[in-house]
């Protein structure tokens, strides 16, 4: 589940590289936006996973957090 958002990040890096090569500011901006979207998805996925682990942990472990 940790690879959520990785595809958007890779796509964004590719778009940004193409934008740099072709001189397209629009393509570079789209690439950066895709990368940000991917990082956000990844952070959300990681937070959900942590919340699930806390929820599934025994009560004594939750109380110590």
Please supply descriptive tags for the structure shown above.
single chain; mainly alpha
Describe what this molecule looks like in 3D.
Helix 1 runs antiparallel to helix 2. This protein is about 85% helix and about 0% strand. The chain is built from three helices and no strands. By secondary structure, the chain is mostly helical. The mean pLDDT is about 90. It starts with 5 loop residues before the first helix and ends with a helix.
User: Taking Cα atoms only, what radius of gyration do you get, to the nearest Å?
Assistant: 18 Å
Order of helices and strands: HHH
Helix content: over 70%
Mean pLDDT: 88
Beta-strand content? under 5%
Please report the total strand number as a whole number.
Answer: 0
- The poorly predicted ranges are none
What kind of assembly state do the chains in view correspond to?
Answer: single chain
Largest sheet entry: none
**What is the rounded distance between the termini?**
23 Å
Number of helices: 3
Shape: rod-shaped
């Amino acid at each position: 589940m940790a690879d959520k958002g990785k595809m958007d990040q890779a796509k964004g890096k590719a778009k940004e590289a193409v934008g740099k090569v072709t001189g397209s500011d629009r393509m570079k901006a789209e690439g950066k936006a895709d990368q940000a979207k991917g990082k956000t998805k990844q952070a959300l996925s990681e937070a959900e996973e942590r919340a699930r682990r806390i929820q599934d942990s025994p009560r004594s472990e939750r109380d110590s957090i």
